[in-house]
Amino acid sequence: MNPKFAQIIVQELLSDHNVFYRLHKELTAYNWNNPRLRGSQTILNIDWKNDPRLKLHSTVECDGEILFNTASGDIEVGEYSFFGQRAMIIAGSHDVSKKLFDRKYGVPQTGYDICIGKGVFIGAGAIIIGPCTIGDHTVIGAGSVVTAGKYESGCVYAGNPAVFKKKIVFD
C-alpha cells in the first residue's frame, strides 16, 4: 500500500473519530507509574486520554490487550470494571444501505453508545457491540457476544449472542 495513501486514510479516520485503541506489550510512563498496570499489556497506540468519546474511570483495569472503537458512539466504563484479554468494545458501525467506498467509509457518527456500569467483569475475548448498557456488577462470560440492548445489574450473561444465565447472589 502506498504510505501516502495510508497516511490520508489514517488522518480521515482520526478526523471522523473512527479511532481504534489497541493495547500492546510495551510500557509507557502512564502504566509504569500505575502499579495496577505495571507489566501488563496496557499501551494505547493513540492518545486515548484526550478522546472525548472514551470515558474510562481511573480504576478500570485490563488483563492484556483490548480494542475500543468509538467510531459511532461514546464508550463509558464505570469504576472497578475490568476486562479479560482481547476483549473488544465496539461502538461503531457501517451504513449497509450504501455500496462500495460509501459503505466502507460511511460510518455513522452517533447512535451506538456503550455504557458499562461499575464493577463489571468482561471475560477474555468477549465482544460488546453498541448500542448497549451493561448494569453494575454484571459478568460477561469469556468469548460472549453482547449485542444491542440492556443487560440487568448483578447477572451473568454468556454465549453468542449473550443470554441471561443467572442472577448473582452477593455476600
- How large is the radius of gyration? 17 Å
The count of β-strands is 17
Query: Can you tell me the number of structural domains?
Result: 1
Give me the CATH fold name: UDP N-Acetylglucosamine Acyltransferase, domain 1
The average pLDDT value, as a whole number, equals 78
How does the helix and strand content classify structurally? Answer: alpha/beta
Report on the architecture of this protein.
This protein is of the alpha/beta class and 171 residues long. It has one domain: Hexapeptide repeat proteins (UDP N-Acetylglucosamine Acyltransferase, domain 1), CATH 2.160.10.10. The protein has helices at 3-15, 29-32, 100-105, and strands spanning 20-24, 43-44, 54-56, 61-62, 66-69, 75-77, 82-83, 87-90, 114-116, 121-122, 127-129, 132-134, 139-140, 145-146, 149-151, 155-158, 163-167. Strands 2-1-5-8-11-14 form a six-stranded mixed beta sheet, with no helix packed on it. Strands 4-7-10-13-16-17 form a six-stranded mixed beta sheet, with no helix packed on it. Strands 3-6-9-12-15 form a five-stranded parallel beta sheet, with no helix packed on it. The chain is globular.
